[in-house]
Amino acid sequence: MFTTIYTHEIKTWFKKPLFYIYAGALFILAMLLSAIAVGVFDSDNVTVTSSIELNSAVGIYSMLGFFALLTYLLIPSIMGGTIQRDFDNNMHNVLYSYPLTKFTYLVAKFSAGMTITLLVIFASVLGTTLGFYLPGANEALVGPFEIMNYLQPFLLYIIPNVFFYGIIVFSITAFLRNINIGFMFVLVMIILQLTASSSLQSMDDTYWVELLEPTGDAATYIKIRYWSPEEQSNQLIPVEGTLLYNRLLWLGISLIIFFAVLFGFNFSQNPTNLRLKPKKAQRAIKRNFGTIQSIKMPKVTADFTFIGQLKTAWVLAKSDLKYIVTGWPFIIIVVIAFAFSLVTMLVSGEIYGTGILPKTWLMLSIVTGLFTIFIYLLIFLYGGLIMDRANSSHLKQMIDATPTQNWTILISKFIALFLMTLTLLLIVMISGMIIQGYNGFFDFEIPLYLFDLYVINSWNFIPWILLTLLVHTLIKNKWLGLLTLLVFAVGVPLLMSAIGVEQGQFIFNQGGSSPSPSDMNGYGVGLPSFYTYRIYWIALGIALFTLAVLFYRRGMGSSMKERFAFAKARTTTTTTATIAVSLIVFLGIGGYLWYLNNVLDEQMTGKEREELQVNFEKELGKFAGVPQPITVAINTYMDIYPETRDFKAGATYTMVNQTQYPIDTLHVNYPDRPTTIEMDRKSEIVYDNEDYDYRMYQFESPLMPGDTLQFSFTTENEPNTLLKNNSPVLDNGTFINNGIFPAIGYNEQFEIRNTQVREKYNLPPKDRLPAPEAPGARDRNYLGPNAHWIDFEATVSTSPDQIAIAPGYLIKEWEEDGRRYFHYKMDSKMLNFYAFLSGRYAVLKDNHKGVALEIYYHPQHDYNIDRMMKGLKKGLDYYNDNYTPYQHRQARIIEFPRTGGGFAQAFPNTIPFSEAIGFIADVDDESNDNVDYPFSITAHELAHQWWAHQVIGANAKGATLLSESMSEYSSLKVLEKTNGKYQMRNFLKDAMDGYLLGRTTESIGENPLMYNENQQYIHYQKGSLILYAISDYIGEKNFNNVAKRFAEKYQFKGAPYPTATEFVDDIRAATPDSLQYLIKDMFETITLYDNQINDGSYKQLHDGTYEVDINAQVIKARSNAKGKLRYKNEMNDSITFTPEGKKKALESLPLADYIEVGVFGENDEENDQPKVLYLQKLKITDINNDFKIKVDEKPVEVGIDPFNKLIDRNTQDNRRNISEKKE
C-alpha cells in the first residue's frame, strides 16, 4: 500500500503544471544567477570578477542556500498540499474507511512530498551547474567540476533542512488541515534564522546560537568566516564541532516530530481543535411552538452610487483586515517580527562593542533592511490569501452573485493590505521607542517616526500591493502567485542589471531611494526625487490595478479565453480613461526622467564606465610620469550658498618647474562642471576630451627649470533642479574637499587595477601601487601628484547664520551684502589637502598648553564633546612627549551630517567628524566591554597631524603603514594610558576580527603589512595589531624612539619621500637578535598562528601558593597572497606533533617564538577584569607545550597569547577556565 500511495502522489504531481512551473522557475533563476556570477553577460555589463572559484563547495553552499530559502516558502504548497488535497476534495472520508495503517498513509504521503520538494531544489542545482558552463563564462571564475562540491551542501544542508521544515508543515497540515498556518510557521522560522544570523557579529560566545539555529547556517558561518579565498575555493566544509552537533540535533528533533505525528495522528472526520478552552456545548431549544411566527424584517436601502461602493469597500476592507490581524499566524509573526526588530535595534551601530545613542533615525534605519523584505513577503502572501478567501470559505459564488462591483472588491483588498503594511510599520515605531526608553533615552521624536514611516516609507509598498492584486487575479493558485511575485522581485532586477540596464525607472518600483534623515540636515534634497519616482510607479500600478478589475475572476468561467471575453465586456469608458490617464502620467514622468538622465545629464552604465577607464589608460597612459610643474602655493576662495545649495569657487595655484627639463605642455584634469582656466603665460589647448575631463595646454614658450606659473580657475555647480542635485552644498553641514578642483598631471588612480579586468582588455599587469624601489615612486607622496608642501590661504563665505571653516588660522571675519566671510591663512607649509565646511554650529573652546582647541558641533549633539576634547588633550600630550612637536597653534573638530559618510578625516589643524560616529556614541564608563571610541577616534585623527601631515609616505607599497597604521597605534597608546590596559583586549579583538574578515574578500591579493597597497583591512586593523604588539615586544619607549627619529628625519620633507621599508629597517635595528623573527612575521610576510589551551589545572601547595599546570598548542604558518597556508620555511623545514589518539600529525613552521602565557584570578574589584596573577613571554620551540607555573592567589583561568597580540584565526580557545587537580 505504501508503494501505491507514494506512486499515486508522485504521478499526481507529475501531471500538475505547478510542479513544472516551480522547477522551471528555480531552474531559470539559478541559471541566470550563476551565469551572471561567472560573467556570461560581461559583454553587456561591467566585468564580473571574483577571488574564489564559484563552483567550490562554499560557492555552491551559498548559491543553494539562497534557492533553499525560496523553496522553504514553497514547502507548504508541496508537502502540505500533498496531504491537504485529501481534505479539500473530501477524499479523506473515503480513504479513512479503508484498512490503511497510519504509518503507511503518512510515510507515503510525506515521502512523496519530500521527493517532489527535493526535485524542485535539484532543478536549481542543474540550473546553477549549467549557468557556470554557458558560452561566455569566465573560466578564471570556475574551477574543475567536483561532484562532492554539490553533494556536500545537498546532503548536509538541503535534505535535513527540507526534512525539518517539511515534517513540521506536514504535521500542521495533517492535524489542523490548514496550509496557511504551515506557511506562517516557515516564515516565522526564517525570521528567527535571520535574527540569529544577525546577532552573531555582536556575540563573543556563539556556541548556543550555532547549536540551536535549525538550518546549520550559523555554525557554518562561524566555521568558515575567516577562510581565505584559497580555502574557500578548494576545501569542503568541515563537518565537525558545533556544525556536526547542530546537524545531528536537528535531524533528531525532526525524527522525534516525525514519530510524534505517526503516533498522534488519527483518521478522524474533523481537524484537531487547538482551543485552550473548548466551547461549551449548547442544547438547541425549540421556541416556535405556534404554526405562525411574526418576524420583523430590517429595512434595507440599496446604495449603488460611487460613495455607496466606497462604503462597501471600506466594510469589506475592515473584514479582510480583521481576518489578517486577528489570525493567530499573523499575531505570531508580529510577535516574532517585534522581537527581530528589538534584537536588530539593540546591536545596530556598534563600534568596538560600544553602541550609539538610540537616536530616532537609527531606529528607523531597520525599515530599509530585512524588515522591508519581511513586509513584502507578507504582502505577497496575504494578497493571495484574501483574494482566495471567499473561495476557500465556499462563499465565492454567493459573493459573485451580489451587485458589488469588481473595483469595489479589489479596492477593499488594497485597503486591507495597505492597512496591514501600516500596522507592520507601527512595529518599528513601538520597538524603537521601547529600545530608546530601555536605554534611558526619551527624545522619541514621534513626528519623525510618523513622517518617515507613514509619509515616506509607506509609499514604497503601494506599487507592490497593486501588482500583487493583479498577479493573484491572473493566477488562481495563491502559491504559484507567491512564487511569481518572488521571482519577479528577485529575478527581474538581476536580469536587468546583467544586460546593462541600471537606471531605476526601468526596474519596477526602483529609483529615487528613500532618503535617510540626519539630525543636522534633515532629509536633505532627496524627497522630491523620491516622490516623483513613487508617483511614477504608482501610476503604472493604477493601470495594473485596472487590469485586475477587468480580469477579476467572477462566476464559473475560468479559462483564459473566457477571462479575456469578460475583460472585453467589462471595458467601459471609465476603465479605459483610468488606464489611459495612468499610462499618460507614467509615460510622461518616465519620459521626463529619461530626458533628465540621458539627455541633460547623460548617465553611464557600469560597462561604459569600465570601458572609459580602459580607453583613458590606453590613450593617455603614455603621459604618466611626464614632468609637470609643482604647486607651491594656493590662494583659494569658496562661496557657499546653503539656501540654494550652490557654490562658486576659484583659486590661484602658484607652480614652479622643479625639474631639470623645460615643460612645454600642462596636463589638467578639470572638474565636470562649468570651469574657466587662465594662466599668466600664453598657451593653446592642443587636446581636450570631455569624456575624460582631460585637457592639455601647450605653452607658447616652454616653462624653463625654476620658472613660475600662475594657474587660476573658477568653478561652480550646474544649476540644481527639482530632481537633480548638482552640488555638494547642504542646508546645514556642508563638507567639500579639494577633490572638486582641477588637478595637474596624469592621474593613475583612474586606472583599472583588477588583474582579471586588465587581462580581459589586454592591459599589462599593474600593481595597485608601485614597489618602493620602483623608479619615480619616491618622487611624489601618495596623496596626489604635482604638489609637495604648499603655502595655503582661503576665503570662505556662507549664510549669516552659519560658520565657515577651512584649514589655517582665522585672519579676518566680516559680513558683506548679507553674507558672512572668513579669511584663513596657514602660517607654515602644509600638504595639498584641504576642505571647506559650513554649518550652524555651537562651539566648545579650550586651550591646552598654548594650543587652541575647538569643537564645532550640532547644538543637540553635546553628548560626547567633553570626551573628544579630552582626546585632543591627551593626544597632544602623548604625541608631543614621544614624537616631534605639534606644528600648529590650533586643533579643530567640525561635525558634518551622517549622510555625508560615517568617518572622520584629518586635514591640517582641521578634523571633519561625522555625526554618526563619536558625537552620539553611548559610552558606558562602568562597563569594561565598552571602548571609548569618541576619545580614540579623536586621538587617531589628531595623530594624523604627525603621521601624514608631518611625515607623508611615498606613492609606493606600504605608504599607509606610515600614516594610518601609525595613527591607529598612536591612538591605541593614548587610549591605553588614559583608560587602562583592560580596554585593549576588546579593541585588539575587534581589530583582529576586522582583519581576518577583510582578507576573506580580498579581490586581488593580500600583501604583507609593509607592502600593503592601501588595503584598509591591512593598514587599519592589522596595522594596529602589529604595531601595538611590536611595541610590547621591544618596549614602548624603544619603539617610540624609532618613530621619533624617523619623524625628525622626514618631517615636512618632500621628494624623495620615505617608504615603509625604511621604517621597518629602523625597527629591525632596534629589535634584539632573539626577536628578529618578529620583523619577518609581522611586517615582511603574512604569518598566522593557531594557539590554544588544551588543558589546565591547579593544586594548592603547603605554603598557600598554587601550582598551575598548562598544556598549550602553538602552530605557526605563512600565507601567500591568495591565502594558501604553508608550514615549511624557505629551507623546507618544519616541525610536527601527533596528538595522543590521533592519526594525523600537526605541522608548524619551526618555532623559537616568545609568546605570552598568562594565569588569571578572580575579577579585580577596581575594573571588574580578571586579575593578572602571571603574565610572561615564554620561549616556545614545540607545537605541544607543558608549563608549570606558581602563583600566589587561586587561579581561575589560563591563556596563551591571552590579549590577542598575535594574529590567530580562533581566539576563543586561547583562554580556558581551570579547576583543581584531582589527586
* Strand percent estimate: 15-25%
Q: Which structural class matches the secondary elements?
A: alpha+beta
* Approximate helicity band: 40-55%
Give the integer mean of the pLDDT values.
Answer: 90
Uncertain spans, ≥5 residues at pLDDT below 50? none
Our measurement of the CA-to-CA distance between the termini, rounded to an integer number of angstroms, reads: 64 Å
Largest sheet: 8 strands, mixed
Domain Peptidase M1 membrane alanine aminopeptidase: 873-1070
Transmembrane segments: 20-40, 60-83, 103-134, 154-176, 183-203, 248-267, 328-349, 361-386, 407-434, 446-467, 479-499, 535-552, 573-595
Keywords: Membrane, Transmembrane, Transmembrane helix
Protein name: Peptidase M1 membrane alanine aminopeptidase domain-containing protein
List keywords for this structure.
1223 residues, alpha+beta, Immunoglobulin-like, 4 domains, 8-stranded mixed β-sheet, 5-stranded mixed β-sheet, 33 helices, 30 strands, transmembrane
Summarize it.
The protein is of the alpha+beta class and 1223 residues long. Strands 1, 2, 4, 7, 10, 12, 13 and 14 form an 8-stranded mixed β-sheet that branches. Strands 20, 21, 22, 27 and 30 form a 5-stranded mixed β-sheet that branches. The longest helix is centred in the middle third of the chain and has 33 residues, at 406-438.
